[in-house]
Amino acid sequence: MVKEKGILVVDVGTTKICALIGEEKEEKLWVTGMGIAPSRGLKKGNIINIDEATQSIKNAIEKAQSQAKVIIDSVYTSIAGSHIKTIPGSGVVALKEKIVTPSEVEEVLYSAQAVELPQDRVILHVIPQEFIVDQNRGILQPVGMTGVRLETHVQLITCNRSNLQNLLRCFENLGLEVDGVIFQGLASGDGVLTPEEKELGVILIDFGGGTTDVVVYWDNVLRYVFSLPVGGELLTNDLAIGLRTSRKEAEKLKIKNGVCLRELVEDDDFIEVVGIGNRPPKKINKKVLAEILELRIKELFEIIEKELQERVFEEEEILDIKSKIGSGVVITGGSALLPGIIYLADQTFELPTRIGYPLQLAGLTEEIYHPQFATSVGMLFYVYNLRKNIKEEKKGGIIEKLKRSFLKFIKGG
Fold first, then answer.
1. Pick from 267, 295, 226: which is nearest to 84 by CA?
2. Do residues 44 and 129 both lie within one domain?
């Protein structure tokens, strides 16, 4: 009996590296290996020390492989940071046989990528917004339809070329060839959002360690993404400065006593804060800690709301977010469980908010059922579905060609 080969996904975050190994068993996706390692050599999603980042990635992968004990036949990693940008694109082709074929879908998607990009930009993902056959708009799957002209409108998710190449270099140092790179926000969407939310309209906020990724869906189509260089690390830094303590102690306080709403704290609730150097510990009212976190979270949400209004909905000539976001807001990521964060989101966006837990997978279910693993689980779903689609395509089909083109492009070929 041939042993099943595994999928390795590595979420390269600012504070932690998470490696998951997935296998198909009984026509289901199982998580059979998991490795977590502290992240070194990264800042705000960007690699600043290749040797340290390489070692961190290696540590996480080795832990996952020791659990799964399976041959890895594909490797995918994630990328985030404020350098992630989306730009619109469009393409058009004539239908030779007066019917839309897979090859013509491939051709029109390639033509939509023919936009003038700066030398330092690379296309990560091509997200079709709609296909148009003759005058019929809003088509999501055009294959088999009759007409004389096929058009598409897409969103191109792009990143900085050197950031991407530095990430790939870490894997090359380990002798691993990366099959694909996934934007963290896109993966998180696959990990926590339901089909109903994507259909009705949803704003996903992935609150990571060094970055916060925002993804917007409606009508079951990814409409817009952006990434901000603000995350849980900034909260820790604010606490360290505001409470005059070390970053290590501030991180402990955030995890153990963190709350981002002053109303949730009793007037007589005090905590002990360790001083810096030889300074003695001191007791402070927990409301002080809550006020620091509340101000920063509110500021972040206000930045996100402004970005949504100015760049997403005005582009669509829709000034009312609620007209497209029917289900609300989903917050995921390592800092998503801060008490009070749901209330602040409800108040800022005036939309119902929930915490995004990863969708259930077989295998190591309990270990990964936490918002901080949304990206990792989403990457597995993304790759698993991609592999299923590749199997359904003929050899050299559209998905395989797009994959080969992507790898050639990012490597400068």
1. 226
2. no
